[in-house]
Write a structure and sequence with these properties.
two-stranded antiparallel sheet; 9-stranded mixed sheet; about 250 residues
Length: about 250
Amino acid sequence: MTPVIGITAYDDTAAWRNWNARAALIPYAYVDAVRRGGGRVVLLPPGGDADEASATVASLDGLVVSGGPDIDPVRYGQPPHPQTLASGPVRDDWELAVTSAALGQGVPLLAICRGMQILNVCRGGTLHQHVPDLTGHERHDGGGAGRFGQHQVRVSPDSMLGGIVPERGLFTVPTHHHQAVDLLGDGLKAVAWEEDGLIEAVEAGPSELGGLPGFVLGVQWHPEQAEDVRLFSALAAAAAERAAARAQALAPMI
């Protein structure tokens, strides 16, 4: 059974042929990565309310919360930094709602770049709004607009992520971001760091609210930009396991 994995989409203006209009879209690298990892893709356009988010997530076996523009800092109680470029309330509302629904329903979740920040804010965490102010360098931003760079991360060997990418020492990843996790949200623990100490991955951890069920992983880098699809394969495996358990529960009693 091929698990159905939703990918949250952008709400943006796009141009194609003779058209220029508001569109729901996603870089195709996400679609390729989920398929190569063993999932069947559906796109989740922004704009629905919490009830739609809950019903949509209930129909999925797994979820990818994608990268994109900054989250409005009002969501985590801060005034905007001059370099913060918020995506707008439509996408923020939708992705916070689908992330909350996935966590509540135990749907396997892979949150990428902005997605990891959404996950953290959803759990009450905060963000560094402009990483160069903190680190004094710009190697996280990939070399500027429209480009991905590379840097190295250190993954905790005693983590779920460490079991997926068990390389010891430093692990090279594609990167493009200028914001990052600051105060960790409830139920999350840091499991990877850049050489400068910046948090680069989180997963389910101790919680004051009773913990988070299932596969919950956020990475600050962009795994969809690499040939390595182990993170997507791990998501698909967790999603397939959930799908099989649901099918068995719904099977008629013999």
